[in-house]
Write a structure and sequence with these properties.
Layout lengths: L1 H8 L4 H22 L3 H5 L1 H17 L3 H15 L5 H10 L1 E5 L8 E7 L2 E5 L13 E2 L10 H12 L3 H10 L2 E3 L6 E3 H9 L1
Antiparallel strand pairs: 1-2, 2-3, 3-4, 5-6
Helix pairs in contact: 1-2, 1-4, 2-4, 2-5, 4-5, 5-6, 7-8
């Protein structure tokens, strides 16, 4: 199956390629998690390399914001090093993360908004509420101080001409404030904790 998906990904039709890459990445991550080994990746290493090459090629030429995000997720899934990539990218696509306060008592469920509606945290489901909801501004990571995955994704988005996504990633790798206890916390840290 990975051979067929690699053929589709290397074709000339963007929608077919994106779907094939997304499916292949999901299959590999699911196999890694279910079997707690990377046997499938090793068994099909040439196909995985072809898929990864195609994902990076499509990523560099994709203009649509959400398609770009899904291709970045596919790259991470194909590389197999980040098991919470789906949760990270889902928040960028939907422009919000639903998280728990990291306080040991779990004082609040909250929403972290990263996009067109602004960059803030709130305990209200902002999409379903009125405009007088209490919000707390987010604190983005300074791009120059980002390290590891945050730095890599931010730099990729900028290099690929997706400044809006790079900005959202700076907030995702920055800090939010719990509206209940006013504790500041790492957004991506809570994304990872939720994906557990």
């Amino acid at each position: 199956m990975l051979h067929t998906l690699a053929d589709m990904a290397q074709g000339d039709h963007a929608d077919t390629a994106t779907s094939a890459l997304h499916l292949a990445g999901a299959l590999l991550v699911q196999s890694d998690q279910r079997h707690e080994t990377r046997n499938l990746r090793h068994q099909y290493a040439p196909e995985v390399a072809r898929l990864l090459g195609a994902a990076n090629r499509w990523r560099q030429v994709t203009v649509d914001r959400n398609d770009y995000c899904h291709l970045v997720e596919a790259v991470l899934n194909l590389e197999g090093d980040v098991h919470w990539a789906e949760d990270l990218i889902w928040g960028i696509v939907s422009e919000e993360y639903e998280l728990e306060c990291p306080d040991p008592d779990g004082c609040a469920s909250l929403w972290v908004i990263v996009g067109e509606r602004g960059f803030f945290s709130t305990t209200e489901d902002y999409a379903l509420s009125d405009d007088d909801v209490e919000t707390f501004p987010l604190h983005p990571a300074e791009p120059g101080t980002l390290e590891g995955l945050g730095r890599r994704l931010h730099d990729l988005a900028r290099a690929d001409g997706h400044e809006e996504i790079a900005r959202a990633l700076a907030y995702a790798f920055g800090e939010a404030t719990c509206p209940e206890c006013e504790q500041r916390f790492s957004v991506v840290g809570q994304v990872v904790a939720r994906a557990g």
